[in-house]
Structure to design on (498 residues):
């Protein structure tokens, strides 16, 4: 416990040290303040835009797009990935498509999706789904295909059928693979939502940031970035809790 | 239980790799039959076929698989990390849809008997090698098998633990009607536990010779102290050493 609070103390010290140095470096010159903004300016913007709810509104939109797409994308990817365990042939057939889909930058698909699904929330959710689906699918399939054949045989010796092997062995033993994909997908989900908002949108943090940068309002850009970081932290926190709930045998 | 003219080969590099060559033997009620053979001779394939995990090419096996008569114990415990000791033991019962309060109290009774009572809610990673293999043993016998297939179940344990578990197995089997097939490459273990020992050749496995072990003692530890134990060892080693030449 002592060690833990010490680490936290250092982490806070580094953050404040960084902010203080930043504030000092830009305080002398108006040009520097214009180009790099300053921690105090950012704090002012945060207070102003949070109290007039505009930043909360944009954050909520981004959070909503991210979380909905994140959940659908992961669930879909995990189901397909684990499901492919039933048929190696199906995986082999699907493989080139998975590779192609996985290697196309999401930025390239984004304009199409905005044309098809509009500039509203839906196109962003679809983007987030596509950003998270492939990784969840590939990792889940990997986890499912790496199960120990001796354990399969042991279950078969009790007369287990394929469904029992799937639910009692494949799913639980793939969990750590699945969860590591879900964790990585937090970043990809936010990226997907942000790219969608960046290209064309009426709301969301991507919208907020691109509008602010157009006005050279650097402090607002930073305020938006901070909100994105907070959303990422929140999602990480949720996935950590999920992990502890789902894999109690892994903790010390 | 009888096995007649059992044959099995695998496809390998376009050719056929013969693993089992015309094996015939029987196991009587209450008998422990040891199959002693060099490593890689096809013993595990044989047990997998008997357990209905792999399919035979030819031959007759008179086991009714619909009755779940088989209990199969492996070299390693093969416990599930995500299940605690109790539910690891219950796995076979769950698969066979046979779990009820009577069976649950049976599990608790066996946990007590094998000194695992305090660990029933532990995850496998907190157990020692011997404890894990005991859990695997209880998981195997809790479904009341009438045929027990044991594939070198003690080979990954240290010597003392192995002796202890041999004795526990002996205690469990005595006065029961279970037919046991015990596969090993360990000559001492074969003599200590077997009523009969079949020496197998290297691949493809054939039966080279059959020995009835006629020792005064039945207990595997006491058997090791009998003078005749050494004689059997010499004979079996004589048979086996030709098969282990590289």
């Amino acid at each position: 416990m002592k060690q833990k609070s010490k680490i936290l103390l250092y982490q806070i010290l580094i953050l404040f040290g960084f902010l203080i140095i930043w504030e000092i470096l830009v305080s002398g010159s108006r040009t520097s303040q214009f180009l790099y903004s300053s921690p105090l300016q950012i704090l002012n913007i945060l207070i102003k835009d949070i109290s007039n709810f505009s930043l909360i509104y944009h954050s909520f939109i981004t959070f909503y797009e991210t979380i909905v797409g994140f959940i659908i994308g992961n669930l879909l990817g995990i189901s397909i990935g684990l499901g492919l365990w039933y048929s190696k042939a199906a995986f082999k057939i699907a493989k080139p498509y998975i590779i192609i889909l996985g290697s196309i930058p999401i930025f390239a698909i984004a304009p199409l999706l905005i044309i098809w699904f509009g500039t509203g929330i839906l196109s962003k959710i679809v983007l987030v789904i596509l950003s998270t689906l492939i990784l969840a699918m590939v990792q889940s399939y990997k986890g499912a295909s790496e199960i120990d054949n001796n354990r399969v045989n042991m279950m078969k010796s009790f007369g287990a059928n394929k469904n029992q092997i799937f639910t009692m062995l494949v799913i639980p033993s793939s969990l750590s693979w699945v969860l590591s994909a879900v964790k990585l997908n937090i970043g990809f989900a936010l990226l997907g939502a942000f790219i969608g908002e960046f290209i064309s949108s009426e709301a969301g943090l991507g919208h907020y940031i691109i509008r602010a940068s157009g006005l050279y309002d650097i402090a607002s850009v930073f305020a938006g970035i901070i909100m994105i970081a907070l959303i990422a932290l929140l999602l990480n926190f949720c996935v950590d809790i999920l992990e502890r709930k789902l894999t109690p045998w892994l903790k010390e | 239980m009888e096995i007649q003219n059992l044959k099995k080969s695998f496809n390998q590099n376009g050719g056929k790799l013969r693993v089992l060559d015309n094996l015939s033997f029987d196991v009587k009620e209450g008998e422990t039959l040891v199959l002693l053979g060099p490593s890689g001779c096809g013993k595990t394939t044989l047990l997998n076929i008997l357990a209905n995990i792999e399919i035979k090419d030819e031959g007759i096996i008179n086991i009714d698989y619909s009755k779940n008569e088989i209990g199969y114990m492996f070299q390693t415990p093969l416990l599930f990390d995500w299940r605690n000791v109790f539910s690891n033991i219950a796995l076979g019962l769950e698969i066979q849809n046979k779990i009820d309060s009577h069976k649950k109290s049976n599990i608790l009774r066996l946990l007590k008997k094998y000194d695992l009572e305090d660990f029933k809610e532990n995850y496998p990673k907190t157990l020692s090698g011997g404890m894990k293999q005991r859990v695997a043993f209880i998981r195997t016998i809790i479904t009341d098998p009438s045929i027990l297939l044991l594939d070198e179940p003690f080979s990954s344990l240290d010597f003392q633990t192995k002796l202890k578990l041999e004795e526990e197995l002996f205690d469990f089997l005595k006065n029961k009607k279970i037919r046991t097939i015990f596969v090993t490459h360990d000559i001492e273990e074969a003599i200590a536990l077997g009523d009969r020992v079949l020496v197998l050749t290297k691949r493809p496995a054939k039966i080279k010779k059959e020995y009835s072990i006629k020792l005064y003692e039945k207990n595997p530890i006491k058997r090791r102290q009998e003078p005749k134990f050494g004689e059997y060892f010499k004979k079996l080693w004589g048979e086996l050493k030709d098969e282990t030449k590289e």
Observations:
- Chain B has a mean pLDDT of 91.
